Amino acid sequence: MLANAFEKLIFGNRRLTLAVLAIITLGLLFQAASLRIDAGFEKQLPQDHPYMQTFMEHQAFGGANRVMVALAPKSGDIFTKEFLATLKAATDDVFFIPGVDRARVSSLVTPDVRFIEVDEQGFAGGNVIPAEFQGTPDDLIKVRENTLKSGQVGRLVANDFTAAMISAQLLERDPTTGNRLDYMAVASKLNELQGKYPDVNIHIIGFAKMVGDVAAGAKGVAMFFLIAALITFVLLLYYSRSLKFSLVLIACATTSVVWQLGVMVTLGYGIDPMSILLPFLIFAIAVSHGVQMITAVSAEMAVPNTTSLEAAKSGFRRLLGPGTSALMTDVAGFLTLALITIPMIRELAYTAALGVGVILVTNLVLLPVWLSYLAIPANTEKQRHHIEHGHEKLWRTMGGLARPRNAMMLILFSLALGVWGWQQSARMVIGDTEAGAPEFHADSQYNKDAAYITSRFSIGTDILNVIAEAPSSGCVEPDVVNYIDAFEWHIRNIEGVHSSISLPQAMKIAASGWNEGNLKWRALPLSIGATDDERARNQSLLTQASRPIETSTGLLNADCSVMPIMFFLTDHKAETIDRVTDGVEAWLAANPFKAREGVDVRLRLATGNAGVMAATNDAVRAAEKPMLYAIYLAVAVLCFITFRSIKAVICCLLPLVLVSVLANAMMATMGIGLKVATLPIAALGVGIGVDYGIYIFSRLQIHLKNGGTLEDAWVSTLRETGHAVLFTGLTLAAGVSTWIFSALKFQADMGLMLSFMFILNMLASIILIPAIASLIIRPKK
What we know:
By secondary structure, the chain is α+β, with helices and mostly antiparallel strands. It has helices at residues 2-11, 14-32, 50-57, 81-95, 137-150, 183-194, 207-240, 243-266, 278-301, 308-335, 343-371, 380-389, 392-399, 404-425, 445-456, 478-492, 503-513, 532-546, 574-590, 609-643, 646-670, 679-705, 710-737, 745-776, and strands spanning 66-73, 100-106, 114-119, 122-127, 164-170, 200-206, 462-469, 497-501, 562-569, 602-607. Helix 8 packs antiparallel against helix 9 and helix 9 packs parallel to helix 22.
């Protein structure tokens, strides 16, 4: 009754319906024109994770949102008047970039970079580049000596003196305006910097630079979208034999994208560079469902004496139920991504679900109403006969899949394939599988810059900070500093740790300096078994050793109650991060600090970009299976509501499970990690797969109710839907396969995976559904 009332409402007021939808489309197109790139570092943080609670509390120590700029003279070393002048100018440029925390810009020329030495009077020190520096040969020799004394070799100066670093921390909000930081503006300033000084080579890495490079690479996404749309149009034209039908379907799919982007802007959303492919996925889903409507309406138009309006109404009635169910399943699938407590993924979940939701209007209302105004093509009856009977031999052959003996063999083969896929998927990595930035190919400029910095500097580009929290003046407690020192020594020797820096390490150097640089004094006073007098004497020694170490080093805070331990990793591969964080947690569990009155210390993971990656990987790992189970549950519930049959649920669901397992196996085989950028594949793959299943089973159910054998019902179903399903799977795969040639690696990975899943879901639907049905469904005689 409700469907009939809805049909009368929209088809009884066709002009009004089209006018209202046209006005909405124009308004949302105007809104979509102001869509902005909306990148944000904190959007990537799994804020409920314990590591990120540490990160938010101690951002002042080694926040992950920083920019590293390495300047390298084209010949010689850095100790020339010209290079140091360029370094000073470039440091000033970075200092004045909007959003930079100016108190945390460091290079050889900034006042926070100092050296300390021992002379006859005790400790002496000063800026690495003295205020009276004039660039004379003697001045350059003095700068070289000061650099060696400063401990910055390997940090702000390359190990071979061929490059110098500028390090800057970014704020999430621009301090001058209070607005959220415009990462595209920061990236633009960094790009200007690279072209400003022709006498040096400049290598830049950091989140802001990566966002800018992704956005630049994403400009090519529009070209791939046009290519995919053109491929889809050509194949639609071949399939429908109608230019009008093909243009209308492409227009409706494009309208879906316009609506999605317009509503996003209206709700205050921008588009994240890592979600730049989302509109094109919505286009693909709209095409997938639109082909079903085109097929249904074309079939009705071929019936003699049928008008376009009657054909459109009939197609609308036929697909309203299964179409709504399939799209709602897609919506539910995307919403399950919100189980992952990362703001960017939740934003992706909501906007993707929104995009699928608008297809309910564009495909189930706009498309059939638009088709009702088109003249019936002269070759419609011939085309219908071609669709239904042009592959009669193929349909009859595939009808044999519904025979119990053939079905059992196919089920056994699928089970074996599923077991193999399950074994292979166990090797799938949660996180990054390569050393460079996974968003780019290995030969990209960003990854070349990252490799250069890693090879020249000891600190590397991936930092894991463990925060030591103690009572005030904790750094003068022998128990505390020895505990931290033992911890650092153990973790520093774990495979994957390049080097480390901590307050106890710096205190050892200072202690040696107080004793004429004698290496025998490069140690901490023992605390085990010390008497009260010895403990007091040891505290005096530690006070002396910590006095020269300033808070600007980032090794302690003002009252010495927070002391970061910095571990520089060789890379950010998932296995490296897991090995180090597991090692930290295992050591802490096996070596609890024995607190006494007024003396305690707590070591907490983690800050630094590697800490963020570790937390993100944990969040993805924790949500992966619950997310899939939630998708399957949504599919089961909506299929049951649609068909009122547990057997129908089994027929539609089992092929999806097999495809999901095989998709994970392919990711493991191809070295594609499961992470933020690839998570939508799981939801989209299940969504597209269930679309095929619902459309197919809705026709199979009707033919079974009319009596006859399952084989005959299946052949009749294939005559009506087989072409559409085959065409949709091949067309979508052909469209997204062009992404494999993208300059962005994550887009290339998604193109490969989506092509695989579109084809596999199509094959699973038309092969496994009849096989499963033959074992559990007994048709009426």
